[in-house]
Amino acid sequence: MSEWIAAFKKKAHEAPYLLPKNYFPQQEEQQQQEDKQFLPSPIKDIVIPKGFEARKEGLYFVAYNEEKPPAFICSEYVLITGRYENITDGTEGLIVSWFHNNKWKRLKRSRDNFMVLSKLVELSALGFPVSSLNQRLMVQYLTAFERANLENIPVEKASEQMGWSEHGFLLGNEFIGSGSLSLVSSDKGEEQFAKHYTSKGYIHPWLNMIEAIKSYPKVIAGVYASFASPLIELFDSKPFIFEWSGETSKGKTTAQKIAASVWGKPNEHGILKRWNSTPVAIERAASLTNHVPLFLDDTKQANPKYIASSVYHLAGGQGKNRGSINGMQTTKTWSNVIFSTGEQKITSFSRDGGSTARVFSLDGLPFGTANDETYNLVRKIERVLKKHYGLAGKMFIQYILDNREKWLGWENYFYQQTDFYAEIAKGNTVSQRLAEHMGIIDLASILFHKCFNQQYKAEKEMIKLWEGIISDNQETDRPKQALEDVISWVSSEENRLYTRDGETIFKPSDCIGKWNEAKSEDLCLYPVKLENFLKTQGYEPSAILKSWAERNWIVTASGRMKKKVSVKNVKEWMYVLKIDIINSL
User: Fold this and answer.
1) 182 φ/ψ angles, rounded to the nearest 5 degrees
2) Residue 178 · residue 168 · CB < 8 Å
3) Residue 159's closest CA among 168, 150, 151?
4) Nearest to 386 by CA among 545, 233, 254, 534
5) Which residues contact 541 (CB under 8 A, 6 or more apart)?
6) 3-state secondary structure of 73
7) Max CA-CA distance within the chain?
8) DSSP H or E segment with residue 480
9) Would you say residue 373 has pLDDT above 60?
10) Which residues contact 106 (CB under 8 A, 6 or more apart)?
11) What Å distances lie between residue 205 and 102, 394, 399, 458, 542, CA to CA?
């Protein structure tokens, strides 16, 4: 007789109420012979709840009225083998196992998935033995089983997100630290994705590969940024997007694979996701990875509108606020590095000022000139990445945990380097805001070298990389680019401005503004016309105008960004752009 069937019957003799009244001891010998085929339960000391029976044919509900035959539930043996507390949102869940095709299968889901009829039946698609015919009896059975075995069912901690917790770090299905914590996913897709944050091979071949790429700043910077991801939460920094952009088939994806190999399986069947996903899917992936990097490949394959909406939320570290029947859903958040590749810069898809300062963009060929030498190097790298990955990230996290007493010193170094890079970028507002991301990448490079006892230093690489970011600031300075676009627009529509004598060849409703002679010909634009133009160009008008005011590019009055301007002897509110700023462009 199997252990768990024997346990049922032993408990039944000690407490007869656990088996129905129509149980006859004389049938036990025959039943024992049949039960020899059963396998032991995943947990010990469990009992069948009152009103149910486990027979060779499966589970039955047994009525206490002898005239009514037992009701068949399912042919599989179903057990609750665990419970968990979800530290992400405070909810509880169950781990339910069932024996099918000579092996135990299991599902780990929130309680409502098993205890609510409409949700339970959806689990049939995952192989759980439930249908519209037996769902009510199954809910009754699971409820009774949990109550009867409450003391024997183990309880564990679980999280919907990878990354830091109170006692360690959750990476895929592995917890690094003291105690235990497991990952709980809302669907099979997330489970499948998370399991690829794993390891294979050996660390030394991987480190030899890193040694071979150290002379390529745009590639090694991605490795440092990958290690920087878990540091963002530790030192209260901000999430950001790290991207390689430029010509196709020139090494961008290989550079991303190297960065991804720090944490898991670095290919499209592993932890590299395509940009051709919906914004909701990308948001859920960012929330799941949380403090671990998320890798998105090839913007060319995605809908530009999807990318534009995703960039803002990804760079902000927070998903959309969504309602529910009873109020609001829990808003998804994350604090990590989001990696991206594409032929055009990701900032070209979204022109809001907020996300631009959180996009760390490297344009051009990651491996320099495309020739036979770089081709052979890339080919060797691809071979290493197939066999060795995921070990460096685990070792890096363990190094951080083993050196808690140094965290304050590391934090001070991060602040010091952030100020250092901001000073280099002095006068460039957007680059100064990017300095914090450069500071965390710099810290990651130092910790990487210490963790793996690497001798080469990265100071010169970091400064050279930063100077390249600053020189590319024309693209990243959205307020300046917006002003240039506005001036070009006004130049092309100059016949829609009021003339100096207050006349216009257009109807007044078609005019966009006027030149203000009284103020050395400052440019005055109607608010609605200017704001609509900025929107059509993909800018966020309120953010752009606020930035212009902060830079003293527009005339303000009593704290207002608009000023009253005389148009044909009528005072009207307008935005007034300073002529000296316009002439300096």
Assistant:
1) -115, 160
2) yes
3) 168
4) 254
5) 530, 531, 534, 535
6) strand
7) 114
8) helix 478-492
9) yes
10) 42, 81, 95, 96, 97, 98
11) 40, 16, 20, 21, 51
Kind of pairing between the strands at 359-363 and 240-245: parallel
Distance between CA atoms of residues 162 and 390, nearest Å: 15
The SS3 call for residue 96 is: strand
In the Cβ-directed half-sphere of 543, how many Cα atoms lie within 13 Å?
16
Give the CB-side neighbour count of residue 478, counting CA atoms within 13 A: 27
At residue 223, the pLDDT reads 97
Query: Which amino acid is it at 357?
Result: A
Q: What is the mean pLDDT of residues 337-341?
A: 96
Question: What's at 288, amino acid-wise?
Answer: L
- Please name which of 348, 288, 353 lies closest in space to residue 316, comparing C-alpha atoms: 353
Residues 116-135: b if buried by 16+ CB within 10 A, e if exposed: eeebbbebeeeebbbeeebb
What value does the mean pLDDT of the chain take? 85
Closest to 190 in 3D by CA, of 162, 165, 164, 169:
162
The answer to whether 567 and 498 have CB atoms below 8 angstroms apart is yes
- Find out whether 420 and 426 touch, Cβ atoms under 8 Å: no
Cα–Cα distance for residue pair 357/319, rounded to 1 Å? 18
Instruction: Encode pLDDT of 509-536 as tens digits.
Output: 788 998 876 556 789 999 999 999 998 8
Contacts of 420 (CB under 8 A, 6+ apart): 439
Say how many residues make up the chain. Answer: 585
Q: Which two tokens stand for residue 37?
A: 């085929």
Distance CA 185, CA 84 (A): 12
Beta bridge partners of 389: 200
Given a contact cutoff of 8 angstroms between Cβ atoms, the answer to whether 142 and 123 are in contact is no
Question: What is residue 279's three-state secondary structure?
Answer: helix
Residue 327, strand partner residues: 324
Distance of CA 429 to the CA centre of its chain: 27
